[in-house]
Amino acid sequence: MEDRAIIDLFWQRDERGIRELSSKYKAYCYKIAWNLLEDREDTEECLNDTWYAAWRHMPPKRPRVLQIFVGKITRGLAIDLFRKRTAAKRMDSHMADVCSEMEELSFSYAVDERMAEKELIKVIEEFLRRLPEADRDIFIRRYWYLDSIGEIAVRHRVSAGCIKTNLCRNRKKLYGVLKKEAML
Amino acid sequence: MKKRFDFAQEFGELDENLIARAGEPWNGKSSVLHFYSRRLAGAAAILILAILLAGNSGVQAAVKEFTTKIGELFGFEKDLSSYTEVLNQTKTQNGISITLHEVILDEHALMVSLVAHFGDVKQSPPLRISEEKTTINGKSYWVYSSMNGGSQNLELMEEYDMNPEIILMQCYEDMILPEGEAKIHLVLEAGDRYASPVKCYENAEEFVYDFVITPDELREQTVRINPDLSFSLGDGRKLEIHSLTMNDLYCQMTAAGLSREDELVNDYALKLRGEDSLGNPVCMDFAGFLLEDDEMRFETSLFGDYEAGTVIEEDEVTLSIPDKDCEYMDLQLYARKIIYEPLDAEDAALLEGGEYYVKESMDSYEQYSRMENYGWEPLGEKFRIYIQEEAAAGAVIGGADAPTEILLK
Fold first, then answer.
1. Shortest CA gap B9–chain A (Å)
2. DSSP code per residue over B222-286
3. How far apart are CA B322 and CA B300, in angstroms?
């Protein structure tokens, strides 16, 4: 079914929309959640939450790209679930690495004098646009799609070490930019 | 009031176009990434070398007369003139002028030498051969490695009276050239290709050169053998040498025995090092896997075995390329643990001018001392590989009871 028709079903509060959405984007969302959670039960839970979050958000939202819209929801829910799991000492995933890498880019800043979060994401986008295409792809695959280092290495036909190095370098550069913008 | 910037959550709100692009199958030329650090470290080495040579008249006098500009810049021992096409074509647009001097082509590499003038600017924009638009006999080929030799810091070049020649090279894996002339449609790009994700070449000027070149002579001089040789890595595994290709410009070898997932491949830099029967030093870097299978590729670098530290100190330009007419080569595999932590980089400087790869954590040689052999440790057995086609064979030196082992840390 076309994305537009699925969105129309949601707007008409027709529950067939959830079925169609799940049928069309389950594999896509499953991979995003699995990349982080590596647990079938947790991943299924995350996906169910995704469909109901989509139900809550449409309407009023009418996403321009439905796939990205649900992908964003899944990613956010997976991170939440992963953190809960981590807090409950169930952290057994190699993807603890990706969270720890992303944690390197998190920081506290004074809101009254500094840039709002919404603007910081613009800074990140500008940073990514200035990166070479391959670096940008590697960065987004790792931190948005939450791909493992190995998967990215295969995608780019380079060694995992090369990907690690590339990510490490660009995290450091981005942190420098964010630091400057937020005047930490 | 303090607020927390949660990257993991905020990054979820990334621009949809960026997410969508990364969601598509990757068809870029990422393999070049593998070599950025070492190639550019090499370029830096060439730059330093050029400065020293320029400042040392004794050394200048010792430099031999080269008949080609490519041979001169890289210090090739052999005369390359018989298969170097001299073009001397100049193209000018928007104040940038590029004179294409020489071209060398075979089925492995396209190498061009040029001089560029950029008007009054002190730092030239990046120059490259367009992978997408350059065609050979009407077809573009998959490029697994690109190299850029020569300095683009015009101020520095002027100060040290450095050779303004720039060498650009692309290496191909799957190119098959028919006999006779090859038609080259060469597109050079000068400028920043990453100015915008929508318009990749927004600030780049294109310079197009059409010409024909005959790669037959270089092809005839190229030695290709399939040695029946394997050697122990010292941990129960073996590396099998499948093919060897060599001429005056490069030496390339393929081998099987390690997978793409192997720790040695991912966490260690690898190289084959030794000398040929004529006493020439030989160094072949591990240069990734072949496109379609798990065969490893080792090849000589145009920047030589610069980490040995002998080049600059002894004022000798040594490419570490074997003589194709040698009887045999004695080689040993060396491994060095890659250091992933980046060097302290000046972030602001890195973000300007597109020089993202100047400081690179893979330049591990900066992390190891000369006393430590720059971090390189021998791995497994030494072996001998015979070059004559009819006697293409190999032998382990020292026998199976004399393996050298290193522990993977």
1. 6
2. -EEE--BEEEE-SSS-EEEEEEEEE-SS-EEEEEES--TT-HHHHHEEEEEEEEETTS-EEEEEE
3. 9
Answer whether 0.95 is exceeded by the pTM.
no
Which pLDDT band, with edges at 50, 70 and 90, does B329 fall under? Answer: very high
Cα B113 from Cα B100, distance rounded (Å): 6
pLDDT, position A80: 86
SS3 B217: helix
- Does the distance separating the beta carbons of A124 and B5 come in below 8 Å? no
Report the 3 state secondary structure along B131-169. Answer: CCCCEECCECCCEEEEEEECCCEHHHHHHCCCCCCEEEE
Q: Give the C-alpha separation, B195 to B185, whole Å.
A: 25
Q: Which of A121, A154, A182 sits opposite B10 (nearest CB)?
A: A121
- How many angstroms separate the CA atoms of B273 and B271, rounded? 6
Q: Are B214 and B181 in contact (CB under 8 A)?
A: yes
Helix (H, G, I), strand (E, B) or coil at B185: strand
* Per-window interface: B 244-273 vs A, CB < 8 A: 260-261, 265-267
H or E segment to which residue B299 belongs: strand B296-300
A129:B18 CB<8 A: yes
**SS3 assignment, position B210:** strand
Q: CB of B344 within 8 Å of any CB in chain A? A: no
Residues of A whose CB is below 8 A from B6: 106
Question: Does the pLDDT value for residue B106 go beyond 80?
Answer: yes
As a whole number of Å, the CA-based R_g of chain A is 18
Q: Which of A102, A108, A135 lies nearest to residue B8, judging by beta carbons?
A: A102
For an interface test with B, which of A64, A127, A145, A166 has the most B Cβ atoms less than 10 Å from its Cβ? A166
Say what the pLDDT of residue B96 is: 86
Contacts of the segment A175-178: beta carbons below 8 A, 24+ positions apart: A175/A104, A175/A105, A175/B347, A176/B347, A176/B348, A176/B350, A176/B351, A177/A123, A177/A127, A177/B347, A177/B351, A178/A105, A178/A107, A178/A120, A178/A123, A178/A124, A178/B5
The interface predicted TM-score of the complex, written ipTM, equals 0.80
CB-closest option in A121, A145, A162 to B13: A121
